[in-house]
Specification:
The chain is mainly alpha-helical. It contains 6 helices and 2 strands; from the N terminus they run H-H-H-E-E-H-H-H.
Length: 152
């Protein structure tokens, strides 16, 4: 079983993590892309998704860039994933060609519902502020996370 994010969501998480780790605002798109190994042509699209969700804001001008609009202490991975991909909640029944909430419920419904709930609870509990603090601590031990160290 593979749980895999889309590249767009992966880039959104990287960008927000970088914004949360910086002590200043705004941060240029070029710096975010360079530091987090995000292709320059995709960053504006990703940031637009996050902007529509009220997660980031853009500052125009020579010294412009992006800022988090939400407090990293309350911003979760689930917030980021849903901002880019929409809700991942299953709407179609795995057995019947019908909405998952139709009567009678199929035998798989409680299993899928429980698994989905556990998965979303973990993502909702993973807060960008805490992840940024953990990454800062790791950077102090082994050096900053940069393009040469990003896993693909």
């Amino acid at each position: 079983m593979r749980l895999q994010l889309t590249k767009r969501t992966d880039y959104a998480i990287r960008a927000c993590l970088h914004l949360a780790m910086e002590d200043r605002c705004p941060i240029s798109g070029r710096r975010i892309a360079e530091q987090m190994s995000i292709p320059n042509q995709f960053l504006p699209q990703v940031m637009a998704d996050l902007g529509r969700a009220g997660i980031v804001g853009a500052v125009s001008g020579k010294n412009g860039g992006y800022c988090l609009r939400r407090d990293p202490a309350t911003l979760s991975l689930l917030d980021l994933i849903e901002a880019v991909e929409g809700s991942g909640r299953r709407h179609e029944c795995a057995v019947r060609e019908a909405p998952c909430d139709s009567d009678p419920a199929c035998a798989l419904h409680p299993v899928w519902a429980e698994a989905q709930s556990a998965f979303t609870d973990v993502l909702a509990g993973a807060l960008i502020g805490e992840l940024a603090a953990q990454q800062r601590a790791a950077d102090e031990l082994v050096g900053p996370l940069g393009p040469e160290r990003m896993h693909r």
